[in-house]
Amino acid sequence: MKKKIILYLFIIISIFTNSYDAGDKSFTLPAYEKFVLPNGLTVYLMENKEVPLITVQMVVKASVFNEGANYGLANAVSEALLFGTKTFSKSQIEEEFDFRGASLRTSADKEYTTISTNFIKDDFDDLVAIFKEVITLPIFPEDEIEKWKSRQVSVLTQAKESPGSVISNYFSKFMYENHPYGNPLDGTVETINKLNHEKISEFYNSNYLPSMSALIIVGDIKTLEMKSKVENIFGDWISESENYKVPALEEYFAHDKNRVLLVNKNDSHETTFYIGQFGIDRKNRDYIPVTVINTILGGRFTSWLNDELRVNAGLTYGARSFFSRFNSSGLFAIYSFTRTETTFDAIDLALEVLNRIHTKGIDEETLTSAKNYIKGQFPPRYETSSSLANLLGEMFVYDFDESFINDFEKNVDELTLEKSREIIKKYFPSENLQFVLIGKAEELRDKVKKYGEVTEKEILSEGY
């Protein structure tokens, strides 16, 4: 308990000591070293000596692209890594990290999996030995898998009681259909029930490879000393699938007409909705100006969408717009919710706001405000060792370098009104819009037809 309190104090101190000085003209990424071990493992080391903490993270390109029809398998494997290793049981792993006030977490995204830990630097040798086994020697005990499946099925079942928790899955599936980007990351009740030790082990053996992974260490370290340790600890991680290649990503397709997915929830007294289209991918060079413009439309509390739908019309507690980006695709969506009887008032008003950004555009004052907001929000995102480790992990997965960070403010400043008009026309959809509504279908069915061709589903049916 004492170590846990100390660790929490150090984390708080690190946030304040690393806070961005508003007087600084720019924020740049701290120096780091990158190298590749003979087994193919990429390593990033970054010194951050403000407090005696270390973040260790492993990023693996294990994703929904490799799970086929076994939706939720990539996520299940990430969870099952913590169920025990050849040396340590699940309870021993939990007790050892908890005793030292440390954390050990796994998380899966659609394109990669992350295993991360934070601890006081004096615990490095002991905890990294366990960390390594979690990644390289998991055993996936059947009894723990069955217990997890039971919990996951319960979570998935309960999630459909909350439309806001599942509407993104419906939207992704509606947009991507059978493309892997449309796969629900958490799986479905049916697919989770079919998972077992064999499927989990097979996915692990085919995807958790040093050549597909990056080890990131950020914190109170000495780079030369840590480089030697990393080589000794992880240099013997040899995969069985030496010839594994990342599967080619299919081309996604555009939808050339307005479409509506109406998901019926009979007991609902409100409607949750998305309005969107395909957006931008991770490699798009216009990401920064797109972000600035989206801040105006729906990216902050004082956005046009939130002002009109929440503040002025009182139709909702919140409205926003966002771009979600993948390696070779992306989505744009407007999101909100409202009472059943005001569904079409809210959707029509959201469409008016989206149209306004095309027809009226933005003025210099609005653009300047958004640019200042983005620049102010940017540096605090990288105040801690954990956030810097996350950034390095994304640099590995999405193959970009520090210029994204170092040139960020310059690229924001270079956005002009003329350029903003080009960005709006190119990336903010005005036609062939895709609508997903979750609510009481019998009260929405007739009027929703005005938005496009309608497909209906039941929220209690299997999958999305």
Tell me what the structure shows:
This protein has 464 residues and is of the alpha+beta class. It has 18 helices and 12 strands. The strands form 2 sheets. The chain has a 6-stranded mixed beta sheet with strand order 1-2-6-3-5-4, sandwiched between helices. A 6-stranded mixed beta sheet has the order 9-10-8-11-7-12, with helices on both faces. A hairpin with a 4-residue loop joins β4 and β5. α2 packs across α8 (197-207) and α10 (287-299) crosses α13. The longest helix is centred in the first third of the chain and has 18 residues, at 142-159. The two termini are 44 Å apart. 40% of the residues are buried. Residues 8-24 have low confidence and may be disordered.
Would you spell out the secondary-structure blueprint of this structure?
Layout: H1 2-17, E1 33-36, E2 42-47, E3 53-60, H2 73-80, H3 90-99, E4 103-108, E5 113-120, H4 124-136, H5 142-159, H6 163-176, H7 189-193, H8 197-207, E6 213-219, H9 223-234, E7 259-264, E8 270-278, H10 287-299, H11 304-312, E9 319-325, E10 330-339, H12 343-359, H13 364-377, H14 385-398, H15 403-406, H16 408-413, H17 417-427, E11 434-439, H18 441-448, E12 453-458
Parallel strand pairs: 2-6, 7-11, 7-12
Antiparallel strand pairs: 1-2, 3-5, 3-6, 4-5, 8-10, 8-11, 9-10
Helix pairs in contact: 2-8, 10-13, 11-12
